[in-house]
Amino acid sequence: MGVYIFLDIDAEAIEPAAWRGFYAQARDFLMQHPDGLVGLRRQTIDCNGQRVRRWVYSTQLEQDEAEPSQRHLRVSGDRSSLKTAEAFRLFEDISHYRRSTASASSSSSETAANFITEALADGINGNVFSDKTQGYPYHQAILAVGMLAEARFPGRALVRGDLSVAQCQAAASLLEEIIGVSVPLPLMVDGDRLYETLVGEAPTVERLQHLVNVSPLEEAGVEILHRRAPRPLQLEWLASRIAHYEGRVTLGVITALRHWLNVTEDLDGLIEALSSGLAGVCLAPADLASALVSTGVTLEPQRAAGLEGLDRPDAARCLPIKRCYCANWG
């Protein structure tokens, strides 16, 4: 468990000179970061007349400067918070990331789309970054470098991991402030772009599930499909999601229902999806009620038109109780 940042690139499709230009921008950004970023570095000291090497945290982020093929940046934390986690390295030589010595391949929009689709389908990978920041302050700096790569190499770079829109906006602001470069939000937190990439004009249950799977937060994926997909297909997706649990009301079912209700507030659709046989799901009323209660989600009180005459007189009323479709344990 942890908080991760991943950066995938199609190294064979990126020109070495273009990658060196990106590296130079990333170096300027990291070296000028206001938190004083640090990385692990070997230091040689004298100990009782013997030369001993030890690891230290240093603000000198670039290492192996004299060896072009090995020159790289290493960041592990920051001096302001004194919090450190895993080391993230970025090499100046693109051949470090290539599977072969071949020159850059075609950069057509079709091959770029294929790279993004394949990178998303492969799940967790990250051939440049693939490590944990634990959410420490330097997380945002590493994210900013990933966003810079994605912006400079559209369709050839993809940053992902434990991201949020707010984090990405803050990282973009830092890039603008420190090196004067404006970048868009990364694909993973741009809901409409992600929907167009993974679902497109022919939505299916499988594509919607893939969208939710790759979204940094499941609720973010549900929000996208709720805005973009036809409602009947949304209900079919929800039923198929619950079908994996084979009629058992588990934590997974409760979490899925909570996400659906928090995003859509569509109780009627939820009941229809889970009690009408969609995707083979038909929960018994008692099981469905139990699952709803377990979500802990409530609705604001609503007046049913035409029932005003049945209201109790004020003098006969007890303390008001919020009317809801499940228990409020808060």
Low-confidence sequence ranges? 318-330
The outline comes out as: elongated
Instruction: Profile the largest sheet.
Output: 5 strands, antiparallel
The count of DSSP E runs of length 2 or more, i.e. the number of strands, is 8
Question: Which structural class do the helices and strands define?
Answer: alpha+beta
Radius of gyration: 26 Å
- H/E topology pattern: EHEEEEEHEHEHHHHHHHH
Q: Kindly state the mean pLDDT as a whole number? A: 88
Given the structure, what is the number of helices? 11
Which percent band covers the strand fraction? 15-25%
> Helix amount, in percent?
40-55%
If you had to describe this structure to a student in words, what would you say it looks like?
Strands 2, 3, 4, 5 and 6 form a 5-stranded antiparallel beta sheet that branches. Strand 5 and strand 6 form a beta hairpin. This protein is elongated. The protein has 330 residues and is an alpha+beta fold. The C terminus is likely disordered. The two termini are 28 Å apart.
